[in-house]
Amino acid sequence: DEQYDPRAIQDKWQARWAELNPFAAAETASDDRERRYALDMFPYPSGDLHMGHAEAFAIGDVVARYWFQRGYNVLHPIGWDSFGLPAENAAIKRDSHPAEWTYANIDTQAASFQRYAPSFDWSRRLHTSDPEYYKWTQWLFLRFYERGLAYRKGGLVNWCPNDQTVLANEQVVAGNCERCGATVERRLLTQWYFKITEYAERLLDDMAQLEGEWPERVLLMQRNWIGRSEGADVQFVIEGRDEPVTVFTTRPDTLFGATFFVVAADAALADEICAPEQRAAFEAYREQVSRESEIDRLSTEREKTGVFLGRYAINPVNGERMPVWASDYVLAEYGHGAIMAVPAHDQRDLDFARRFELAVRVVVETGDADPAETGVATAGEGTLVNSGPLDGLAKSEAIRRITEILAEKDLGGAAVNYRLRDWLLSRQRFWGAPIPIIHCESCGEVPVPDEQLPVRLPEGVRGADLAPKGVSPLASVADWVNVDCPKCGGAARRDTDTMDTFVDSSWYYFRYCSPGYEGGPFDVEQVRKWMPIDQYTGGVEHAILHLLYSRFFTKVLYDMGMIDFTEPFSRLLNQGQVILNGKAMSKTTGNLVDLGEQIAEYGVDVVRLAMIFSGPPEDDIDWADVSPSGMAKFLSRVHRLAADVASPAGTDPASGDTALRKITHRTIDEVTKLVESKRFNVAIARVMELVSAARKAIDSGPGAADPAVREAAETVTVLLSLFAPYTAEETWEVLGRTAPLAKDNWPVADPALLVQDSVTCVVQVAGKVRDRLEVSPEIAADELERLALASDKVRAALGGAGVRKVIVRAPKIVNIVPS
Ligand code: ANZ
Ligand code: ZN
């Protein structure tokens, strides 16, 4: 018996695969095999690969390898998301250039990937920080700019005082910087934005294509993030101001119940209309609000705060004067930054009214107790009261009616509002794609001409040059910043901000289709062949940002006529996390398992198999509950099985054992279906059962020389190649097969061997089970009825009574009704 030596097997096949490059996608125009595109979310090069990578890439690889085995032309690329802040922080610490840390880590990860052996097409490798890549990120920015989808505006932005850079709303988690945890501040700055709000409706509607193919919770998160609300706009005159002010409301039916008016404390309108005698109080309050996070502001737990602005708004339908307040619970960037307050039917307004002793007027009779007394606003169905022309109407009728009235009188009308904000994409950092715009005193914003792309990052910037100063480090590189205006030739300055790294990752999967293409970001023909992506695998932490931005980019590319589909990822799989002892792994708490150590101890295949076998791919894996040694034992049994078959003990060459063949073919059939439906852990369990059956056939059945045993061993090997590729390749060779195993070898179940010999038929008398019969699955109904009535047990149960009716559901049930 040859010994199973995982390390030796690994080294041997890693070298051979490197030579053979078996997973390169075929590009030839003549290749008319069905195509599949399997994509794993590309890694960020922060040190070596960890357990989380090991899980995600093992799962993604099962799908890709299955497609390779099925004979498809598969695209399964790898690259690196290699711009970003950590590289810059490392460079400051080490007095080096961010590229040094970045590319050293990429090399480390690439070597680890070679060993871990996902079925990548290495020839398509890309790094978003390469000028050959970010040239096209800049090119895309300019196309967005031309379409009015990239623009600059001043406004309040999230500012991380530690990283000294702005953050998108999505990067603020519970008021803290997603990266470093510092409390985020609000600052007034001019920044670049992508107009993703223009695509809000389509981002929502096109989710119909993803229904059933993406995890339901991801679709829900996207839907909530886009946050569509239907309602009405209503215009209010503010005394002493010419222009009326518009508010958005989801409850226009409550217009007669509005008793005051609230403007966001940080909105320009509050500053503009504040009466002189209230100015000091207002400014003090605004200063306090500027330090609050959006989460705090929307919290229903906190006591409401605000200041009276000394002004009055006029209710357009009844002419009432309503005091105007400024408060933090109204957000400057949502709706129109001002609201009509209806305390009887909105809890936030009621809390505010009770705090500042403002009037509460019920206008929808719901049958609940008076909100002014209970402190609980009533939001349910009911009948309108105190509402002039709306009196007596039900809520939904009243909404329709008042919306009509407002439109007729030119005081507003139906409106839709989205929670989604435009995407703030500029960063005051170095290690990103420079924004390809030049600012000229006389010409204003001037796009860098396409033929001058890429706008390369300057070299020689290192260490302390990168320390956060609140402006981009690029601003201090004089010979980089100062350029001639491409339009007038006069002295001008480059934009010194770089792009959010989410811009880089919004289109990388297009680039993989033609990674060396020089005529554009991608070769339109190649993208037409490969995309959309059949399977995207990655962490649920990207459920909102990355996926939403990628969907947005795809729609813009569609509008540019570059592609013919509107959703990039047909199917999405979110793998769970690898945890330890019930908790997230973390370097700081020491609750950590090192991937390199696990591989050194058990070998790659054991780690991969354990990852997949531990549960459904969506579930978290607690590594403390995983048994790598159990997996190692299983793989050595597989190896021994192959070795036994390869050197049979000299029994007679009988025709294959039918019982074992049936198990083999049922396993093929089931594993195929299980892999298709991503129940990989169950698939492995089936392979284990087949190994046991084959072992039994060798030890106490027809013996190792029986052709059915060889068939079982070869089947085990191919099925296992999705999960433990090194061992499978080795046992394939042990079995005397020479062609590379990894492609085109998926077995097909013989339907004749899937037919079951017999099924159990339940016979009931008066609803009670009285007998069970083993019958052929193809038995005819009259034959089954005859057998049932002939049963001794049935006759005993009938006790001489006659039979009124026999209901036969062949081959499973016979129901006898006595007379
Ligand atoms: C009057 C009213 C009466 C409201 C009522 C609700 C209930 P969603 O569903 O999130 O879209 N609102 C509007 N703009 C706001 C802003 N900038 N900041 C905070 N709140 C704002 O919520 C829309 C409702 O939120 C609007 O409808 C408005 O309050 C408030 F019985 O108007 B409502
Ligand atoms: Zn100019």
TrEMBL record:
Residues 659-779 form the Methionyl/Valyl/Leucyl/Isoleucyl-tRNA synthetase anticodon-binding domain. It is found in: Cytoplasm. GO terms for molecular function: leucine-tRNA ligase activity. It comes from the Bacteria. InterPro entries: aa-tRNA-synth_I_CS, aa-tRNA-synth_Ia, Leu-tRNA-ligase, Leu_tRNA-synth_edit, M/V/L/I-tRNA-synth_anticd-bd, Rossmann-like_a/b/a_fold, tRNAsynth_Ia_anticodon-bd, Val/Leu/Ile-tRNA-synth_edit. The keyword ATP-binding applies. Residues 12-209, 420-623 form the Aminoacyl-tRNA synthetase class Ia domain. Residues 223-406 form the Leucyl-tRNA synthetase editing domain. Keywords: Aminoacyl-tRNA synthetase, ATP-binding, Cytoplasm, Ligase, Nucleotide-binding, Protein biosynthesis. ATP binds at K587. Its main location: cytoplasm. PANTHER family: LEUCINE--TRNA LIGASE, MITOCHONDRIAL, LEUCYL-TRNA SYNTHETASE. Belongs to the class-I aminoacyl-tRNA synthetase family. This is Leucine--tRNA ligase.
